[in-house]
Amino acid sequence: MAEPRLTHLDESGRAHMVDVSAKPHTERVASAAASVRCDSATFDLISRGDAPKGDVLGVARIAGVMAAKRTPELIPLCHPLPLTAVDVDLRLDPSLPGVRIVATARCTAQTGVEMEALTAAAVAALTVVDMAKASDRWMSVEGVGLLEKSGGKSGEVRRPADRPL
Fold this sequence. Notes:
elongated, Alpha-Beta Plaits, 5-stranded antiparallel beta sheet, alpha+beta
């Protein structure tokens, strides 16, 4: 097995955008997760839809989709991708208490959509915080990470059970 390496570094150790021009276009899908933990009163406020700024989950969903589309503007060495779908699912979880987020990005391209899914999940989580911070300034974003990806040379890859978020 080849030794792991950082693909965004050239032989001299300088950062560069990876050349994917020789790679075939394949369908790529990636899913990522994030969670927002808050106090019980804020959880109840979000659950009832009574946050002063409006529909917390609805605004966070749209923010996640918008963020996926802007990923190459935010992450310096990401390739711009022709996204064909972005889904951001937000679920209230009283066991946190808080919100669990799963974002899925899809495209047909020469490189994967992991960063788009991660960006969507992270920005959706940050938007939940922004929408409800007046109620709980100590909310936290937790467990941001890739869940699974498919397409390209590596095929289907799922997060190992021994690496929980």
